[in-house]
Amino acid sequence: MRPVSDQRHVYDRCLETEGRSSLAVIAARVPRMAKVLDIGCGTGALGRRLAQTHACAVDGVTFNPREAALAAAHCRHVGVLDLEQAVLADALRGARYDVIVCADILEHLRAPGRLLDQLPALLADGGRLLVSVPNTGYAGIVAELMQGDYLYRPEGLLDDTHVRLYTRRSLLRQLREHGFAPTAVETIERELCYSEFEPTLAGLPPAVRSYVLGRPDAFVYQFIVEATPATVGRRQEPTALDTGETGRPYFTTAIGMLVDQDYAEATRCFARGLIGEARQTVRFALPALDRPARRLRCEPAHRPGVMQLWAVRLVKGQDTVVWRWDGLLESLASVVRTNMKFAAAQDRPGELTMMLEDDDPSFELPIPPEMLDKAFDGQHRIAIELGWPVSADYQLLPPLLAAELEASRTALAERTRERDSLRAELDALVSGRAFRLARRLSRIKRRLTGR
Asked: Chain-centre distance of CA 399, in angstroms?
């Protein structure tokens, strides 16, 4: 935590303008008329939402007196405490809560476990903990680190007051180690072009890029975890919550920029999509350049397959469309393309089929030069609506599996025949020995009886 000073940053948030944010997800998980303790309450944004929409009684705790003064308008009580040192039970005079919220606070503490250890005793029967933390495994951080940088910022994932780093597994492990059983995980995802990180991954080798973008939590900006006090003495084992696996493969797509004579690797922007997702939008932030690119090309995916294309838009800011492709096959007939073909989709106007013939297909975007001249001010984005219901290697999978299944059946039948043959030989051997033994016993009996 920062030393006591009037210069401490004030975290002033507004749930009404944030859309789907960690605080909005947390608010949706709080029951009506609950008694809530908001640890790290900031200026009281969560308290205001819960009081207005859930009729909750909210107490707040913050380290910053300036925040406390603002939060007092929305919370029943607000305490100014150093969470590294405070004994909450004493400060809160034995109060118990239905919900305790630690929204983006654990990463600011050198010893968050000390705080977590105190919380079960503050929960009423059936109470629960709601925690949100930034994801240090976010693709933007990983790419920045792999290129030799780690830039702290006033707010965001690398807020300069963060002293602890979290991934999905490390957060869940810490909760278990300090008396909680995680019951649910939600995520806030943010595409690179809408984050505080440089949107391009061009400095990484292609194989490394694909790996970074293909990890399950690559675009997870924040984790929200709900947990309940664990049974005393019961060991908390990892569960399916720890993996984040979707069970679905990703593909990488890119936008290249022709600034000089060639499409330079350093000016490519990357995003990812889901294989099998019939319709999705991938977005690329165009960087601020001293000289605008003369042409842009799209690299739909870096593997063979069959994709659909619905829309290409040049967008300024968040949602101002300044140019859009007209959706006609004729508009792409004259563009430069490599290792791919276009075809009109049967009975589906406005949809094109893209046939990707190898692992390096591309086509140039028919954006007018006068539009491109204005597009490299750091405020423009390319949005491409596409789908990948099947890829070439997946098309090969059924016959390969059928051949493998038939080979397995043949091998099984052969092993069954061998087993039956061995069993017959064993039965014959046992029968032969039994017959010979019976004959010997019969001869011995006749000798003894004289018959």
From this structure: 32
Q: Exposed e or buried b for every residue in 368-380, given b needs 16+ CB within 10 A?
A: eeeebeebbeeeb
Q: How far apart are CA 291 and CA 294, in angstroms?
A: 9
User: pTM score, two decimals?
Assistant: 0.72
**Using CA atoms, how far apart are residues 191 and 195, in angstroms rounded to an integer?**
7
Q: Are strands 380-391 and 280-285 parallel, antiparallel or unpaired?
A: antiparallel
> Using CA atoms in the order 256, 261, 265, 268, what is the torsion angle rounded to 10 degrees?
-20
Are 183 and 226 a contacting pair, CB within 8 Å?
yes
> Of 16-25, 237-246, 399-408, which range is least confident?
399-408
Domain count, the chain: 2
Q: How does the average pLDDT of the chain come out, rounded?
A: 86
Q: How far, in Å, CA of 280 to CA of 269, rounded?
A: 18
Q: Are 201 and 169 in contact (CB under 8 A)?
A: no
Tell whether 284 and 229 lie within a shared domain. Answer: no
**316-344 tens-digit pLDDT:** 987 899 999 999 999 998 899 999 999 98
Q: In the chain, what are the helix, strand and coil shares in percent, each to the nearest 5?
A: 35, 30, 40
E strand intervals along 259-361: 269-274, 280-285, 295-299, 305-316, 320-324, 337-338, 340-344, 352-356
pLDDT digits (tens, 9 = 90+) for 355-413: 998 888 999 999 999 999 999 988 999 999 999 876 655 554 555 556 666 777 788 88
Using CA atoms, how far apart are residues 255 and 159, in angstroms rounded to an integer?
29
CB 172 within 8 A of CB 241: yes
Domain that holds residue 129: 15-242
pLDDT for residue 276: 81
Do residue 226 and residue 350 come from a single domain? no
Residue 7 lies in a domain: no
Confidence of residue 188 (pLDDT cuts 50, 70, 90): very high
